[in-house]
Write a structure and sequence with these properties.
The complex is a heterodimer of chains A (about 220) and B (about 300). Chain A is an alpha/beta fold. Chain A has two domains: about 1-80 and about 155-220, 3-Layer(aba) Sandwich (Rossmann fold); about 90-155, no CATH class. Helix content of chain A is about 35%, strand content about 25%. Chain A has seven helices and ten strands. Chain A has helices spanning about 40-50, 75-80, 95-105, 110-125, 140-150, 170-185, 195-200; strands spanning about 1-10, 15-25, 30-35, 55-60, 65, 80-85, 160, 190-195, 205-210, 215-220. In chain A, a hairpin with a 5-residue loop joins strand 1 (about 1-10) and strand 2. Chain A starts with a strand and ends with a strand. The mean pLDDT of chain A is about 90. Chain B contains ten helices and four strands; from the N terminus they run H-H-E-H-E-H-H-E-H-E-H-H-H-H. Helices cover about 70% and strands about 10% of the residues of chain B. Chain B folds into two domains: about 10-60 and about 165-300, no CATH class; about 65-160, 2-Layer Sandwich (Alpha-Beta Plaits), CATH 3.30.70. The model of chain B has no long low-confidence stretch (mean pLDDT about 85). The longest helix of chain B is centred in the last third of the chain and has 44 residues, at about 220-260. The chains are: A alpha/beta (about 220), B alpha+beta (about 300).
């Protein structure tokens, strides 16, 4: 599903975030991307979602070499990937239902179908009944779950998350991780970047540990 | 995407953009007011011009052409020329003033009776007073008639005392050009005003546009609500301009009517007709759309998630 082949990423300010990263995540797998902050976790997720492009090396997502994807084709490409952000990136002035519906509206799904799928996604994250609330009326954990509902509502085959539990207490963080595991159980490939080693110890999933822009340790699948 | 879903989405954005404007009514009204004032200026000039044309349209009528024949033209020749002129389509009537009649009139009105007695000969020629047909009452028609009469043999001089009417018409034509030019420039101004407002709107919604792009929204998708906002700004400005013109016409209409009445004219100041008003609304909407398209396309392209 994801294949990094000797990927380098140097930012315009000269910082080298990745210095020859290689790893593979198979279809239907769940993997944790860890390492201290600044090790390149976020850069890898940005390369997967085509928010950034590699300076050198190849990134293959869903059998497509991302460097061959033209800017015009990026929106279509991103629709196959569900992304969860540490800061949720919700639209504060829209109700929860509209936030979750956004990917479906963009894809041109009919209105009636949208309502149905938004309710299903909110049900999966345990937030049924909050459709009309504004994101800021919810707790941080609930906002994160709205973000997850938005990431999965269009049924992507790949779900990536950048520090999804960064602002949550251990109990809430565990719940969020279990949620990701549930999506993985139904066949979604899941990649979660997190520095919370204690948390991922409780999951049997594969671990890719980054250090100084390279893969330092990789546990087998 | 099916056509129905496409139109449903447009309808939704269309109404949604109204909601956005309603959320910040003061800023939106300011933009509409500026657009309205910019459009009202050339429109007021247009109304002034249209009324000036209507008021002066009839001025060529009732002006007769004096045709002085050569001194040697006999009475028989005078009759012949008069008949020839009467036969023309652009001539309503011809009256003959013989040299003797003219002298008698002159003697009666001028007060030079004694002096005229000293003349052995009548110095005046036979004269024809030609009344043009109403259809020929335009500056061009009058000029053509004048040239045609002057070309007749034995005609000495054709006098048309309406040259200033021709000049006035020329001036109105010039003013018409000025109005068109002003309209064009201010139209560009309207597109820029709306564009600038949209630019600020886009920057204010930067994070929202980033989120849209992150979940796979195209530039076109992010742009659509701004296009509708621009359309509303333009349309609202057009309505504002029409109101301003109506107020101006109402304010000036009374005095103009009284002035016209003093000259015995039934002239009434008229405002914009329906077609022009509809054109103004359509043009303002298109200009708003154009301005927002330019601004939104450029600024949305520059926003990329990081």
């Amino acid at each position: 599903m994801i294949h990094f082949d000797q990927v380098h990423k140097r930012y315009p300010n000269g910082r080298e975030a990745l210095a020859g990263v290689s790893f593979k995540v198979e279809r239907g797998e769940m993997a944790f991307l860890t390492g201290h902050s600044g090790a390149g976790k976020s850069s890898i997720l940005k390369l997967i979602a085509l928010i950034e492009r590699p300076t050198r090396g190849r990134v293959i997502v869903d059998d497509r070499i991302t460097s061959g994807i033209r800017p015009r084709a990026i929106p279509q490409f991103r629709r196959q990937i569900g992304v969860v952000f540490q800061d949720h990136k919700l639209l504060a002035d829209r109700p929860v239902a509209d936030n979750v519906a956004l990917p479906l509206i963009i894809a041109g799904v009919p209105r009636r179908e949208i309502d149905k799928r938004v309710r299903a996604a909110l049900d999966q994250v345990g937030l049924l009944g909050t459709e009309r609330s504004r994101p800021l009326e919810l707790s941080t954990g609930e906002q994160q779950r709205v973000g997850i509902a938005r990431a999965v509502v269009a049924k992507p085959s790949l779900l990536i998350a950048d520090e999804p539990t960064g602002n949550l207490d251990p109990q809430l963080a565990l719940e969020i991780m279990r949620l990701f595991k549930r999506f993985n159980d139904v066949g979604v490939t899941v990649v979660v970047a997190t520095h919370d080693v204690h948390l991922i110890d409780q999951f049997g999933a594969r671990r890719i540990v980054l250090g100084e822009g390279r893969v330092a340790v990789e546990t087998p699948p | 995407m099916s056509m129905r879903a496409y139109f449903a989405r447009h309808a939704q954005t269309f109404v949604g953009s109204l909601g956005r404007i309603a959320a910040a009514p003061f800023a939106a009204l300011m933009t509409m007011a500026v657009v309205g004032i910019a459009l009202a200026l050339p429109l007021c000039l247009h109304v002034f011009l249209q009324n000036a044309r209507a008021a002066t349209a009839g001025w060529n009528e009732g002006f007769d052409i004096s045709v002085y024949l050569a001194k040697f033209a006999t009475d028989a020749r005078t009759q012949a020329i008069a008949a020839q002129l009467k036969a023309r389509g652009d001539v309503a009537g011809v009256r003959i003033v013989t040299a003797a009649e003219a002298l008698a009139q002159f003697r009666r009105y001028s007060g030079f009776g004694q002096a005229l007695d000293a003349l052995t000969d009548n110095p005046l020629p036979n004269t024809l007073i030609v009344a043009p047909a109403i259809a020929a009452g335009t500056p061009q028609g009058m000029a053509a008639l004048k040239t045609a009469i002057a070309a007749i043999a034995d005609v000495d001089k054709v006098q048309l005392d309406t040259e200033w009417v021709t000049r006035l018409a020329a001036m109105l034509d010039l003013l018409h050009r000025v109005v068109l030019l002003a309209g064009l420039l201010l139209g560009i101004g309207v597109a820029l005003i709306v564009g600038n407002t949209i630019r600020l709107d886009v920057l204010n919604r930067r994070s929202e546009i980033e989120v849209m792009k992150l979940v796979g929204g195209t530039d076109g998708f992010a742009r659509r609500p701004f296009l509708y906002s621009g359309l509303w700004y333009g349309f609202g400005g057009g309505v504002f301009a029409l109101v301003l013109v109506a107020v101006a016409v109402a304010a000036v209409g009374g005095p103009v009517g009284r002035l016209a009445a003093l000259y015995g004219s039934p002239f009434r100041l008229s405002g914009l007709d329906f077609t022009t008003a509809a054109f103004v609304l359509a043009a303002a909407s298109v200009l708003g759309l154009l301005g927002s398209w330019l601004a939104a396309s450029q600024h949305i392209r520059a926003i990329n998630p990081s």
